[in-house]
Every structure is written in C-alpha cells, then in structure tokens.
Amino acid sequence: MRVGMTMPVMEPDLDTALLKSWARTVDEGPFSSLCWGERIAFDNPDSLTLLGALAAWTDRVQLVTTVIVPQLHDPVLCAKALATGDLLSGGRLTVGIGIGGRHEDYHAVGADPKTQTMRGMAERVEIMRRVWAGEKITDSVLPVGPAPVRAGGPSLLVGTIGPRTVRSAASWADGLAGITMDLDTGKQNQLFDVARGSWARAGKPAPHLATSFWFAVGPADAARDQVRRHLRRYMNWIPTEYVDAIAPTTGWSGSQDELADTLQRFAAIGTDEVHLIPTSSDLDQVHRAAEVVSDFT
C-alpha cells in the first residue's frame, strides 16, 4: 500500500514559502503522491493554478486532485488546464473529481446546483475526455490542446463514499479517491467490494482503491484538539455544536506507532493508497508522518 500526503490548503495564513516547503518536503520523502482539494467560497488557493506551481516545485510524486468539481468549471477550459498541468508535471497528474458538498461554491461561480449530480459530472467528464482525445468539439482550425502526456488523458478517480455513486462511475473512472470519517475499515472494505464488482461487470481492470483521512500526530489530547480546530474551520457551513459533536470520532489522532497500526489495518483490506489530510500547516507533521511511512513501505 502506498501513502500520499495532502497539501495544507484549507489551513489559514498560507504563503508561497510555506506551500513550496510542503511540496518539496513531500516530494523528497517516502510519499507516493501529493494531493489537494477544491473549494471556492473559502480562502484556499485556486486548485488549477496551484497545479501549475506543484508541477514546477516537484519532480517525483504523483499529483492528485482530491477533488476537482467539474460542474464549477467550463469543461473545455478545465480539460485544457488539467492537460497543461499534466504536461508541466511530465505526466504525473491523476484527476480526482467529485460533485462537491456545498451549494455556496456553485452559487459563487454562477453554476446551477441542479447539476450537482453524478449525471452532471459524467456529462462534463465526457467533454473533457473528448478534448484530451484531440477531438475538435467546435468548428475550429485546431482541437483544444495541449495534448496530455498519457493518451486519452490523465487517470480519473471518483471522489465518493456512496455505493450508488461508485457503481455509476464504473463506466468512466479508473478508481476511487474517497474519504473515511470514522476509519471503519469494515465499511471501507464493503465500498471497495462494490467497486471491485462494478469494475469487473464493466469489463475493466481492477479499480485503484484509495481513501483518505484527517490526521494529527502528537500527544493524545493535543492531537485530538488539533483535529477539532481544523474541522471547525473547514466545516464552516455546519453549526459549531454539530462539528464539536462529531470531532471526537472524526479523523485520526495519536502517536506514530498508532498511525503505523492504522495504516496496516487499511493495507489489510486491500487499499492501494491512503491520502493523509493534515490538520495543521506545521511541517513537523509531515516529518513525523514520513518516519512512519518510511518504515511502513
């Protein structure tokens, strides 16, 4: 099982130096991938702009969007931006996509919340695939480029935690890029089984099975409080009292040995990759996780 690290894009007070240090530290470490998520009505960096910077700041790790919401973008421009990022990174891009969980992001860009469906996402994926295949989708002299490094475009992962969504994505996705809130490996394996069966029925190779969880390495009380503070900030569309109610059982916190044990539990159910999501922008969290991942892999 491989282990990736997510950029701290949902943390406050980010600047170029911090983001570059994170990217280079992850790239130089034992991690398999560097991930980042998308929000619009928030103070995180724009995902597609950040892709270009991460392509320039790194040389080795796979770059994984977890996730881009295609309904928030013009699909042709989105396809062009992603293909550009794939080109700049030398073909290291994997595109995780999802429908998003907040209407405010749709409203912020003038997108119709009625398109916040798997059908709406699949329709845009089809357009992006056509662009990446070099098809002229309008009456133009040349097709929309650049061409992605991999023929047909980057690998696509569906960001979801629901079996119905997994089944519907089998026709176009190469795997999953989900999240586990409570780290229940039994439930996670059930979802993986749905994916395995759906991909087999579609006559496709076995899906890439990835999941993610929030983490904080440190003394028990301090680490759990770090997770709680992050959730309060990130889940700002949910009343604080509700966030505080789920905080004790959401994400992971504990010692390095406990993190190793947790990763081993996910490896045991056939997880291909875990994406760790930081709850602090402190680089020490990356270093401490890297020590665990080095021993684990």
From TrEMBL:
Quote the CDD domains the UniProt record gives: Tetrahydromethanopterin_reductase
One GO term under biological process is: alkanesulfonate catabolic process
Which branch of life, at top level? Bacteria
Query: InterPro entries in the record, alphabetically?
Result: Luciferase-like_dom, Luciferase-like_sf, SsuD_RutA_monooxygenase
List the GO molecular function terms.
Answer: alkanesulfonate monooxygenase activity
What UniProt keywords are attached to this protein's entry? Answer: Flavoprotein, FMN, Monooxygenase, Oxidoreductase
Luciferase-like domain span: 21-273
Note one Pfam family from the annotation: Bac_luciferase
PANTHER family cross-referenced by the UniProt entry? ALKANESULFONATE MONOOXYGENASE, ALKANESULFONATE MONOOXYGENASE-RELATED
Q: What is this protein called?
A: LLM class flavin-dependent oxidoreductase
Organism name: Mycobacterium dioxanotrophicus
